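debug: dumping io for the single-chain case to check the tokenizer round-trip. Nothing else runs in this session.
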Amino acid sequence: MLSPISLDRLENFAEEFWAQAKDKKVFAFHGEMGAGKTTIISALCHYKGTKDVTGSPTFSIINEYSYSENGENKKIFHIDLYRLKDEEEVVQAGVEDCVYSGSVCMVEWPEKAPDLFDEKTVHVFIEPVSERERKVEISLSPA
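debug: decoded output
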């Protein structure tokens, strides 16, 4: 859908991404280790105006970022399921609460808990093309 993208032009990608995503809240990011999931999520958060330092939540599982939109304070949850074994651990970590909170949630390694995501989830597939380019396919389900 928005492919291929250059890692040097992520701001343009982020602008297009949010224009297409409209009011969607849950985004599942698929891709092999090192594909660029965290890098792209960081660009999407920065475009929204988060002031927090964005990075991989591999060890914390959930990072929470704040931003302001239309004068209202909002949250983005950046979630990394890589270290979790199964859906029970996902629920115990509080991921389910974030996904159903109504806030924007960006989840890496969603394959670890496929039942957590419904038909409203936007799936983002990232594949390296070269060191500086990624093929990105975005699957927006009908709302």
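debug: round-trip ok. The two ends are 18 Å apart (CA to CA).
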